[in-house]
Design a protein that fits this description.
It is built from nine helices and 18 strands. The protein is α/β, with parallel strands linked by helices and 427 residues long.
């Protein structure tokens, strides 16, 4: 038999089989319709609906269904649904947007399915207002974060343009742009924090203590004789490794530990590399702990960012003392060195209000000259005041709760010089 004849025979056979199956199916359908009509004629009622919440036993039985079977059982059958395509289940290439607003602004972070910031990609986001007007913003420096300002207060939708090699988790998300600062924590502030390995420390960590520049040479390098005050120190990475058990044995009651700073040049938020080690070891040694943050904020929005960073870093610790904003110069070339009294005071207020709205005590650290010449202290009366004046006696006429009286102290367990303080306030 040649191939042509063979194909013809097969085609005829397939046709015959198809006709037979169709006849059987048709006969069964006609028989079921007759049964249904017979039921209608006998009862005067239509058959009960299987999907209705009522008694569907009769109809179920007529159609060969089990009335006791759970109709939702398929939801638990892992084999019922097709598995997700591999690319959609890969968290490394699945992208989402995290968006926050402090005041008439918007910060957009692009993260993967693991919650990690994605860098080195030319992301573009589209912002659509309530009128349908769209604007595009590109991540020019490819750091995974796009800052948009100013933005008119209101309701928006923001979406991420498709990027080759990535899957978008959502098409668009709603976002509200705030009219005024409400001094609340920025939830995704962690994406803005850098380590010392990511910045130029020599250019960024340049705080110049005004109190040290104006010291009169009379300060003591040891504990002052004041029985009514607690004795303490403040430390940062500059103090290097610390033996905290020895520090406690030397009579230190409290320690105020730097958690981080804003870079003097770029404004980057940087965590102090010794913060976690210091705060955990100090608490373990039984020393009361507070923290401070060196500011280079130039406005209230940046102050809220700094407070948010401090709060995020200390969230796992039980602080006995306040969270302080450290306001001082950065060698004359710092990004905040030229601020006026009003703006600098507003920065301190914004920081402190954000801290206290989160349930922590807040305070302001500055030198005597700084309090007198660069701050409006009447606007800071609700917060703890930490004065720096390096002398035998404090001559500052305003209120203060802590006094840093020297930067040249010596304490067992610390190899470097260390700042010494007295605390007159019961927290």
């Amino acid at each position: 038999m040649d191939s042509r004849l063979k194909k013809q025979v097969i085609a005829v056979a397939v046709l015959m089989i198809t006709l037979v199956v169709a006849m059987v199916v048709g006969a069964n359908y006609i028989q079921k319709q007759k049964s249904i009509r017979a039921g209608e004629n006998a009862t005067g009622q239509e058959p009960e609906n299987v999907e209705s919440g009522g008694n569907g036993s009769k109809a179920a039985n007529e159609y060969g269904l089990d009335p006791n079977r759970d109709p939702n059982a398929f939801l638990g059958d892992e084999e019922f649904f097709d598995p997700l395509a591999p690319e959609y289940s890969n968290p490394d290439i699945t992208l989402s947007l995290l968006v926050s607003s402090v005041e008439k602004d918007m910060r957009v972070n692009v993260v993967n399915g693991r919650g990690e910031l994605i860098k080195d990609q030319p992301f573009t986001v589209t912002l659509k207002d309530s009128q349908g007007t769209e604007r595009n913003y590109k991540d020019v420096d490819q750091d995974g974060s796009i800052y948009i300002a100013p933005v008119e207060p209101g309701e928006y939708e923001i979406s991420l343009r498709e990027t080759e090699g990535y899957i978008l988790a959502e098409e668009a998300i709603p976002v509200s742009v705030k009219e005024q600062i409400d001094y609340t924590v920025i939830d995704d502030i962690s994406f803005m924090i850098k380590s010392v390995d990511e910045i130029n420390e020599a250019e960024e960590d340049t705080a110049i203590n005004d109190a040290e520049l104006n010291a009169d040479g009379t300060e003591s390098n040891r504990r002052l004789d004041d029985e009514d005050a607690l004795f303490g120190i403040d430390v940062s990475k500059w103090n290097k490794e610390i033996d905290w058990e020895s520090v406690r044995a030397a009579g230190v009651d409290f320690a105020i530990i730097r958690c981080g700073y804003r870079g003097s040049k770029t404004g980057a938020l940087v965590e102090d590399p010794y913060f976690k080690k210091n705060v955990e070891a100090a608490e373990a040694a039984g020393i009361k702990v507070g923290i401070y943050f060196f500011t280079q904020a130039t406005n209230e929005i940046e102050a809220v960012e700094e407070a948010s960073m401090a709060l995020m870093l200390c969230r796992n610790y039980k602080l006995a003392l306040p969270i302080f904003i450290d306001t001082e110069g950065a060698g004359g070339n710092g990004r905040a060195d030229g601020l006026g009294v009003e703006t600098r005071t507003a920065v301190c207020e914004a920081f402190c209000r954000t801290i206290e709205n989160s349930g922590f005590n807040a305070g302001v650290y500055a030198s005597k000259n700084w309090f007198i010449n660069n701050l409006s202290t009447e606007n800071l009366s609700d917060y703890t005041i930490w004065l720096a004046q390096y002398s035998r006696e404090a001559t500052y006429d305003g209120r203060y709760d802590l006094w840093q009286y020297t930067s040249a102290g010596t304490i067992e367990g610390i190899e470097t010089r260390v700042d010494l303080n007295m605390c007159y306030k019961d927290f």
